[in-house]
Amino acid sequence: MQISPLLESLVEALRCLPGVGPKSAQRMAYHLLQRDRHGGIKLAQILHDAMVNIGHCQDCRTFTEQEQCRICGNIKRQQSGQLCVVETPSDILAIEQTGQYSGRYFVLLGHLSPLDGIGPNEIGLDILKQRLANESIKEVILATNPTIEGDATANFIAQMCDQFNIVATRIAHGVPVGGDLETVDGTTLSHSFLGRQKIDLS
Amino acid sequence: MQISPLLESLVEALRCLPGVGPKSAQRMAYHLLQRDRHGGIKLAQILHDAMVNIGHCQDCRTFTEQEQCRICGNIKRQQSGQLCVVETPSDILAIEQTGQYSGRYFVLLGHLSPLDGIGPNEIGLDILKQRLANESIKEVILATNPTIEGDATANFIAQMCDQFNIVATRIAHGVPVGGDLETVDGTTLSHSFLGRQKIDLS
Ligand SMILES: [Zn+2]
Ligand SMILES: [Zn+2]
């Protein structure tokens, strides 16, 4: 029973949002119509604006509506000589929130996957190579995901870095801090064994 | 650290949706940018269209982009002689899903709440009164929420019906007392329809 075709379309369209099923889409549509039309109109405008105008930073490939993102444009970060390679733009947010890193980034927007036709150029490694050649980068930190593909991608980039005599490091993978050893999956536990370090008693 | 002001605005704007906190808003924004820009643009257009063009049915006050909603315009439903009074447009959806009812509706868009300045005219009872006077309505089914305010509103409307010698019934208390009509399962709602009783004004 379609009471309002436009309302039905809205419920359907809201389901493009991740984690939104038919019930929550319905609740969202009725909530906006009943209590927050102003917020709904504003969301529509910003959403359209973002989808059309947000592209990729020419240097690091993260999302930005400008040619260069604010991190790449930051002189202090340029002077750090560090470049952190991640798979997705949201990985940058996660790393920024740690407050541990103050260099720049490079976003692959994926990982190497030859069987799916995703080679070095598909993940921007041609752009990365040029940066390694032209900028004064001292260390490339490989923060791709600890999966088979992420590891393979990290290794591939490490070899590229070697050609330019640039140090490549891989972030440590292991038992999460505060985590419980017996609840950690086997792969993670293997990583944490392989990545063990000598305890410095000095 | 604002990497992209427009992306930050989008995350903020998405929070007008019920049940969407900072983390899910962020996940939604990145998901659309990375995997479904087409869906995002379509959502923006439909959302704007809906917020601007969806008004209220002149007869029953539910949401519709036309003057009269499809239920009110349905001749079979007009001939049923039944009118079901609910508090919100989404209550109609819940009742329609039971398949137990084939009459028309009247949406109060609230309930009587004198302390908040919500009197009969604020919940459309002037319009309802005209309908009771002019249409051939045999029964008014009061399906307001089983709360103190919902009960008071039902009683008020029952007295109005009495002036026009129209039978007023209240849906049965299969609906949990203090509960919210739209969250009740279909079976319970069906039972409460079948068990409706005439309101005794004595
Ligand atoms: Zn950048
Ligand atoms: Zn209507």
UniProtKB/TrEMBL annotation, chains A, B:
InterPro entries referenced in this protein's UniProt entry, alphabetically: DNA_Rcmb_RecR, Rcmb_RecR, Rcmb_RecR_Znf, TOPRIM_dom, TOPRIM_RecR
Pfam families: RecR_C, RecR_HhH, RecR_ZnF, Toprim_4
Tagged with keyword DNA-binding: no
Domain of life the protein comes from: Bacteria
Keyword DNA repair: yes
CDD domains assigned to the protein according to its UniProt record, in alphabetical order: TOPRIM_recR
Keywords: DNA damage, DNA recombination, DNA repair, Metal-binding, Zinc, Zinc-finger
Zinc finger (C4-type): 57-72
HAMAP family registered for this protein in UniProt: RecR (MF_00017)
Stated family: Belongs to the RecR family.
Function: May play a role in DNA repair. It seems to be involved in an RecBC-independent recombinational process of DNA repair. It may act with RecF and RecO.
Cross-referenced NCBIfam families: recR
Protein name, entry field: Recombination protein RecR
